[in-house]
Amino acid sequence: MQSPIARGRIARLDTAAAAAAPGVLGILSHLNAPRLPHLKSAVYEEGAAIQTVLPLGDDAIHYVGQPIAVVVAETWEQAQHAAALVRAEYQPGQVRGPLETRLNEAYPPRPFFGGITADYARGDPAAALGAAAIRVEQTYTTPVEHHNPMEPHAAIAVWHGAGELTVYDTTQGAAWSRQGLAEALELAADKVRVICPFVGGGFGTKGGTWPYAILAALAARHVGRPVKLVLTRAQMFTSVGYRSQTLQELQLGALPEGTLTAITHSSTSIGSEVGESPEPAPEVTKILYACPNLETHLRLVQLDLGVPTSMRAPGEAPGTFALESAMDELAIALDIDPIELRLRNYADTDPASGMPWSSNGLRECYAQGAECFDWARRNPRPRSMRDGRWLVGWGMATASYPTHGFPAQATATITADGRAVVRSATADLGTGQYTVMTQVAADALGLRPDQVKFELGDSDMPYAFVAGGSSGVRSVGPAVRAACEAARAKLLRLATSEDESYASILARHGLAEVTGEGSVDEVEAADGHRVNAFGAQFVEVRVDADLGLVRVSRALGVFDIGQVLNPKTARSQAIGGIVWGIGMALLERTAIHPTLGAVVSTNLTGYLLPVHADVPAVDAFFVDVRDPYVNSLGAKGAGELGITGVAAAIANAVYHATGKRIRDLPISPEKLL
Ligand code: MOS
């Protein structure tokens, strides 16, 4: 049972009819549920929860879809039937309307994600803007979006006595999920085990501990039996976060030949009473171009909605839409080719920290992308390319994502048969971690991939942080490698010669197995270098001049992710990211009723996602870049980079095709008419 109102109180809750329904084992509501603590926030503290205020604590309603009762029954159908018999009366409050009407209530978030501050400045942007020969000043907006993984969130909670709990959860981090569950249920972390060997898509929504898993554990304890709780597709729109709407104001100041002299970038996103997760859209602006005078601002407006969360390239996805659209507008104002404008402002070192890049192949991405796309043939004049009733346009934008480093540990066990089992509590959300970590381990051990078994997704395994922020290859990779090297070194010390087999060494010493441990700690430091992955996105669109329909007819992404560990899985990530970008640019938007605060269409009919017919033959490849600093593999991450820049490249192509600049996503047909 979920609240249909966004704000107010539960005036009366009657569960008697539901309790008497066939098969019902128990009902939890604020009338009988234990009071749970407020959780530490994954955004602000070393917590595992995004939603810090848990449901069933009292009669207060904070958002549409807030759970007000959990009905447990013998079968799913019986539970559904009984839930429909729960009677609730509400005392509704005044719902705080859309973000754009409440900007006077905006407030700065406190520092989050290990140091992102609400306000940042270098140089004197106000003076530099005042003196600039050319200025671009625009507002760019992006809507609420949902992650929509095909696998909904689900949990099976099993208590072993009163004090020990196993949860089969859908999570991007088993150890992370365990931490949130332990905190919510006030158990020691070692009394909770979370198991999740496979994830059917995550994209950030499975990065934190959400109430459904905690409710499953509470319900299981209440009825004294294992309980399975699966969110419906509709509940996926109200229960596990979303990407916040952003309202971004950008100012660029430049010299006539294109040198940027000033940038300001302010972004406002959604705050919530049950948690806080700012969308760090201006982060990319701090580092992408060599601009001496720059300031960024982040603000939140509290609305009566659930808490937003990270979604594939949080910050960079909407941030690059605004920045890279504005750069295109500047290129047009100055009559400079968009790639040339970017090269004139190329950041040879990180302009925010002054640190050198661990590696930077962006120049090669521009050059090889332009060559492959045949960019030189582009006539810069809008509406200059036509094919029958189709207006054709070409656009480009820069891609950028930091690929974060997080703590990771692994063990490698070489067994008597000469094979190896390697473990880390990370996750494979369809990204290829199983495959790639098997390769890394096989390589370090000198074994064939089929002789190595890589296991993940169990909080009892060596700790790994949530598989997010494109951190898997960057952080788990070197931990796996170190564990394998440690195991190999242990055995080689016992060997008679360099090429004695593992099986023979173990047999001669009467050992069943030998285990090595590996860990990665201060990976963010990268030996005094700033780590960032880069790319260049190129897009051709065809716009129906009469109907305003936009079709992407060609898309090419060229990326620098350092060493490519597996060309197939990396390319799949890149292409998947570009497809996401097509959805973001042209289709995706969660409509929220302005006065009711409710998601209007809680289904995949009302939420448009790209399908095969929307996606052309997307191409993606990687430039060859050595990165001696990021880690022992020379590999940056690939998971989130691919979406960045795509929406801007499409908006820029739409401008080139039509002469119309759309600054509000998605670029739906009515905006072009
Ligand atoms: Mo990702 S949005 O950091 O799981």
Descriptive account of the structure:
The longest helix is centred in the C-terminal third of the chain and has 21 residues, at 472-492. The chain has helices at 16-19, 76-83, 125-131, 174-185, 211-223, 283-288, 316-334, 338-344, 362-373, 433-445, 472-492, 502-508, 567-586, 646-658, and strands at 8-14, 24-29, 60-61, 69-73, 87-92, 119-122, 134-142, 154-160, 164-169, 192-195, 227-230, 246-254, 260-272, 294-303, 385-387, 390-401, 408-415, 420-423, 452-455, 513-520, 533-544, 550-560, 618-622. A 5-stranded mixed beta sheet has the order 6-14-13-12-7, sandwiched between helices. With 673 residues, it is an alpha+beta fold. It contains 14 helices and 23 strands. Helix content is 24%, strand content 24%. The mean pLDDT is 97. The chain is globular. Bound molecules: dioxothiomolybdenum(VI) ion. Dioxothiomolybdenum(VI) ion is lined by residues 172, 202-204, 207, 310-312, 314, 468-469.
Give the topology.
Blueprint: E1 8-14, H1 16-19, E2 24-29, E3 60-61, E4 69-73, H2 76-83, E5 87-92, E6 119-122, H3 125-131, E7 134-142, E8 154-160, E9 164-169, H4 174-185, E10 192-195, H5 211-223, E11 227-230, E12 246-254, E13 260-272, H6 283-288, E14 294-303, H7 316-334, H8 338-344, H9 362-373, E15 385-387, E16 390-401, E17 408-415, E18 420-423, H10 433-445, E19 452-455, H11 472-492, H12 502-508, E20 513-520, E21 533-544, E22 550-560, H13 567-586, E23 618-622, H14 646-658
Helix pairs in contact: 7-14, 10-11, 13-14
Bound molecules: dioxothiomolybdenum(VI) ion (MOS).
